[in-house]
Design goal:
Number of helices: 11
Shape: globular
Radius of gyration: 22 Å
CATH superfamily of the largest domain: ANL, N-terminal domain
Low-confidence stretches: none
CATH topology of the largest domain: Rossmann fold
CATH architecture of the largest domain: 3-Layer(aba) Sandwich
Number of strands: 20
Largest sheet: 9 strands, mixed
Bound molecules: 5'-O-[hydroxy(phenylacetyl)phosphoryl]adenosine
Length: about 425
């Protein structure tokens, strides 16, 4: 039986959702106009006033916000409430430039935690469950978001944060953890360690995993599900919009339902900024409808994916997003060819490897080089050079047919590639361009 956290919203008719969005958008535009001078200026430059926005049909008139705006307005330029009404900040791990710092009122935290609670319930969670949150706690939104959601559902919450892998497994066993929340790469690492410890799916009390914060493939899902004996659910979100829980998978595992009472999603062509029809692949853009402290209007996520409104067997009516293919800024252009790390991962997993790999891109004599280092699994480990060369050639061929590009493949011994406890770093781009 499918369970819902807020069925009156999650299963509402399209008309009800549209009416709610219309009302909230009009209010939110006024809030931003009155309280966020940075965005008001953008509206003025575009010749738009709140009077022009009468419903969601007028959304396209509003200007976009991008990471560039967030950097320019850092730290307080986009805050929509007096600081004395703000109770928390969270921040991205941003490796380049300024971090994004997002602000929350208590109302913002409540709606964020509701979104995470919906995700936990959609994964089968109830107040009978023990939910271990192994996302990082602190500035990263993963730990605090799922922690809050888990409380709301009434699960017994185990806030282990990430790291200390053997202790994670000890808690899973001793406390009979039933739901595990962490990044998919950390889940794969935990699964690998459990196998090494001789634990099979029947020895592991887990029933579900809620894995997100980075791109992961269907092949990786199957591997983790088989090793841990669980059903693995995807969850999506970003700091700018609150954190995890913007969208989540249900039992159908056919895309993630976007919480449409809080967010409007659009897909645009990243080059022309034109809004694309349903089903087209493009950049995901979100408008937050009822965030107070850090309102985001038409925020360009850089994530590339598609949306569908096809009926879902779970009964939820909210639009679904496909797994993001990667970020437009993760996409590598190698010898003129667009390459997403997720395509490389698919080839590796289809050839029986685990997701332990690194992609090294360089430029030698003005030509781009693509070197994929892949760990052999313990079962396939050998020092027979002929066998290794044969396996490498298979992967070179597989990558050629997926990418249309010749890569160099180097097989390395098990356990040589550093494991990730948070978001995995898969690409090293050494090109100085
Ligand atoms: O990663 C929030 C989060 C925490 C989501 C825990 C899910 C679970 P940021 O650090 O701001 O926030 O990174 C946001 O991560 O724009 C995507 O590129 C990527 N991302 C998040 N979830 C997924 C997912 C958190 N399920 C950025 N699949 C986003 C693919 C994802 N990419």
């Amino acid at each position: 039986m499918e369970r819902y956290y807020q069925p009156e919203i999650e299963c509402a008719s399209r008309e009800t959702i549209k009416a709610l969005q219309d009302e909230r958008l009009v209010k939110q535009v006024q809030h931003v106009w009155d309280n966020v001078p940075y965005y008001r200026k953008k509206m003025e430059e575009k010749g738009v006033t709140p009077a022009d926005i009468k419903s969601t049909d007028d959304l396209h008139k509003l200007p976009f916000l991008s990471k560039h705006d967030l950097r320019e307005a850092y730290p307080y330029g986009l805050v929509g409430k007096p600081l004395k009404e703000c109770v928390r900040i969270q921040s991205t791990s941003g490796t380049t430039g300024k971090r994004v710092v997002a602000f929350y009122t208590q109302h913002d935290i409540d709606l964020w935690e509701d979104c995470c609670a919906r995700a936990i319930v959609a994964a089968g969670g109830t107040d009978e469950d023990v939910c271990q949150v192994s996302y990082g706690y602190g500035l990263f939104t993963g730990g605090p978001g799922l922690n809050g959601g888990s409380h709301k559902v009434g699960c017994l919450t185990v806030p282990t944060s990430s790291g200390n892998t053997d202790r994670q497994i000890m808690f899973i066993q001793d406390l009979s953890t039933t739901i595990l929340c962490c990044t998919p790469s950390y889940a794969a690492y935990l699964a690998e360690r459990m196998k090494e410890m001789g634990l099979g799916p029947d020895d592991i009390p887990l029933k579900a995993g809620i894995f997100g914060a980075e791109a992961w493939s269907e092949e990786m899902r199957r591997d983790i599900e088989a090793t841990m004996g669980i059903k693995a659910f995807d969850i999506y979100g970003l700091t700018e919009l609150s954190g995890p829980g913007v969208a989540f998978e249900c039992s159908a595992q056919q895309g993630m339902h976007i919480n449409e009472d809080h967010f409007i999603a659009e897909i645009i062509d990243p080059d022309t900024e034109e809004v694309l029809p349903e089903g087209s692949q493009g950049e995901l853009v979100f408008t937050a409808l009822d965030k107070e402290a850090f309102p985001m209007m038409r925020y360009r996520t850089r994530d590339i994916c598609t949306l569908t409104r096809e009926k879902c067997s779970c009964g939820r009516t909210h639009v679904r997003m496909a797994k993001p293919k990667g970020r437009s800024d993760d996409m590598l252009i190698i010898r003129g060819v667009n390459v997403f790390p997720s395509q490389i991962e698919t080839v590796l997993l289809n050839h029986g490897y685990a997701a332990n790999y690194q992609i090294i891109v360089d430029r030698v004599n003005n030509t781009d080089t693509l070197d994929v280092q892949v760990e052999m699994t313990p079962e396939m480990f050998t020092d027979n050079l002929g066998e290794i060369e044969g396996r490498q050639k298979d992967l070179v061929d597989g990558l050629k047919s997926m990418l249309g590009l010749k890569a160099k493949v180097t097989l390395v011994a098990p356990k040589t590639i550093t494991r990730s406890e948070g978001k995995a770093v898969r690409v090293i781009d050494r090109r100085k361009i």
